Amino acid sequence: MGHRLARGQAGGRPPAFDRAAYKRRNEVERLINKLKGFRAVATRYDKRAYVFHGTVTVAAIRLWLCD
Description:
mainly alpha, 0% strand, elongated, Transposase
């Protein structure tokens, strides 16, 4: 405990635990991991941003329809 106090604002545990924020963050992380299951999304073959955005959109639609 002394080490955390010595670090002050530089680190340590967060001051409070927000259950709703943690739940939402977990949902977003799981979605990103599902999207990375698509090879084109994980490796980002597309050079243009708008093409990559379309790839992610198609992957998201597939997840939405198939899950």
